[in-house]
Design goal:
binds 2'-deoxycytidine-5'-monophosphate, 12% strand, Rossmann fold, alpha/beta, globular, 5 strands, 5-stranded parallel β-sheet
Length: 223
């Protein structure tokens, strides 16, 4: 563990791989803080859409991120609004912008430096590669595209949304391609990550498997 900062667990993976569910449960079990990095992109997207800023308008996006608005609002905005599919897609588009990614990294570093918990779980696409390459524990969560699309479909239906499975599948596919192919901060696994495929695991099994990985590293770090 690095002196002066909490134990950092980075959980990265594609949309619908179960990162949020696993990270939230792990944070509770371990008494760690949870930092959902995708919310940064979702809040910026929400605001950009409100102001009519397009994903390719780099200067406008960067000004929006630098404004005090983001720091004031990012914890306060209604998360249900932010979870809409079109916000996820817009987030993936703005995530291609290198200027936005640089500002994202400094935003996360600033937020984590204020953290007083003994550990923090971050989830996203590049939290263990670009944001905290020296994270104490890195998990790469995956599941097949069909399983992920079904999970998203069920989640949206449970929230009373009229959705078509094929559209969800296509959106997920497009978002994966965007998130994996961008030159800066792409979603990619390397051998510093522990891979965890949740395609055939229940939620409880996925959480327990991730917990075993983290506890092993955490105990090891405490010597
Ligand atoms: O994790 P999520 O589905 O809420 O993220 C929404 C989008 O935000 C994702 O498709 C790409 C972008 N994102 C990113 O570029 N880097 C991150 N660390 C987290 C999210």
């Amino acid at each position: 563990m690095n002196a002066g900062r909490p134990f950092i667990v980075a959980i990265d993976g594609p949309a619908g791989s179960g990162k949020g569910t696993v990270a939230t449960a792990l944070a509770q079990r371990l008494d760690f803080a949870y930092f959902e990095s995708g919310i940064f992109f979702r809040v910026v997207s929400w605001r950009a859409l409100q102001l009519g800023v397009r994903p390719e308008q780099n200067a406008e996006l960067e000004a929006l991120i630098a404004s005090p608005w983001l720091r004031e609002q990012w914890q306060v905005l209604d998360r249900t609004l932010l979870r809409e599919e079109h916000i996820g897609m817009f987030s993936s588009e703005i995530g291609k912008n290198p200027g936005v990614r640089a500002l994202f990294i400094s935003f996360v570093h600033q937020e984590i430096s204020k953290e007083t918990a003994k550990g923090v779980i971050l989830d996203g696409r590049d939290t263990g590669s670009a944001v905290f390459p020296d994270a104490d524990c890195k998990i790469f969560l995956t599941a097949s595209s069909e399983v992920r699309a079904h999970r998203r479909f069920d989640e949206l239906r449970a929230r009373g949304k009229e959705v078509v499975y094929e559209e969800i599948f296509q959106d997920l596919h497009k978002r994966d391609a965007n998130d994996r192919s961008r030159p800066v901060g792409p979603l990619q696994i390397d051998d510093t990550y522990c891979p965890l495929d949740t395609s055939n695991l229940s939620i409880a099994e996925a959480i327990s498997a991730a917990e075993r990985i983290v506890r092993q590293k955490y105990l090891h770090s405490e010597g």
